[in-house]
Amino acid sequence: MTIAIYPGSFDPIHYGHIDIATRAAKIFDRLIWAVYDRPLKNLLFTVEERMEFMRLAARDYPNIVVMPYHGLTVEFARSQGATVMVRGLRVTYDFEVEYQTALANRQLAEDIDTVCLMTSLKYAFVSSSTLKEIAFLGGAIHEIVPPYVETALRKRIAQLGDGSDDKVKLVSLRE
Ligand code: ADP
């Protein structure tokens, strides 16, 4: 049985991520869709919120398990018996980043291989940061994210921008 892990921040997930996760679930026996709880970046959603979106997206795939992790990805992968790390590739810039990360990870864990899946053409331009920018500027995002993510994103943006004292604080970890 081959266990793969698909790690990332997923803040929040979009159809590009869902496409990679569901395609990987057809290739590997078990896919651990792993959300990195405290990346070095500002987050809009808590780990629980991000996991809830992922669970909804994976509800028709019994071999996808959504899990949070912190620390080194390869160590978490090992602890779960995963031997493959799945990543998605959009543009050539992604390749350079993923290549470097894959080499670094192999240095840390020779027993874990990185497998990159090419994005589906229609999601080639989609990233969480582009998505958030479009949403903050009031643009249409229904072709990029599922309805439950769109609703949560609109609500979070409204909370951030309502000028009240109890504004939602961006979840910025490792502060
Ligand atoms: P990070 O690793 O910086 O936290 P993300 O959580 O945004 O990045 O992405 C996790 C993985 O999903 C990465 O391998 C990334 O290349 C991939 N990915 C992101 N957007 C897309 C997309 N539109 N199509 C295919 N893969 C994607």
Bound molecules: adenosine-5'-diphosphate
Query: Which residues form runs of ≥5 with pLDDT under 50?
Result: none
Please give the number of β-strands. 7
CA-based gyration radius = 16 Å
**Helix/strand order:** EHEEHEHEHEHHE
What is the correct CATH architecture of the domain at 3-120?
Answer: 3-Layer(aba) Sandwich
- Order of strands, main sheet, comes to 4-2-1-5-6
Number of helices: 6
Query: What is the SS-derived class?
Result: alpha/beta
Helix content, binned percent: 40-55%
Distance between the termini: 39 Å
**Relative strand content:** 15-25%
CATH topology of the domain at 3-120, by name, is Rossmann fold
The CATH homologous superfamily of the domain at 3-120 corresponds to HUPs
- Reading off the top of the CATH hierarchy, the class of the domain at 3-120 is best stated as Alpha Beta
Mean pLDDT value: 91
Largest sheet: 5 strands, parallel
Shape, principal axes of CA atoms: globular
Key words describing this protein structure:
175 residues, alpha/beta, Rossmann fold, two-stranded antiparallel ribbon, 6 helices, globular, binds adenosine-5'-diphosphate
Describe the structure.
41% of the residues lie in helices and 20% in strands. It is α/β, with parallel strands linked by helices and 175 residues long. The chain has a domain of 118 residues: HUPs (Rossmann fold, 3-Layer(aba) Sandwich), CATH 3.40.50. The structure holds adenosine-5'-diphosphate. The site of adenosine-5'-diphosphate has 16 residues, from helix 1 and strand 5.
Summarize the structure.
This protein has 175 residues and is of the alpha/beta class. 41% of the residues lie in helices and 20% in strands.
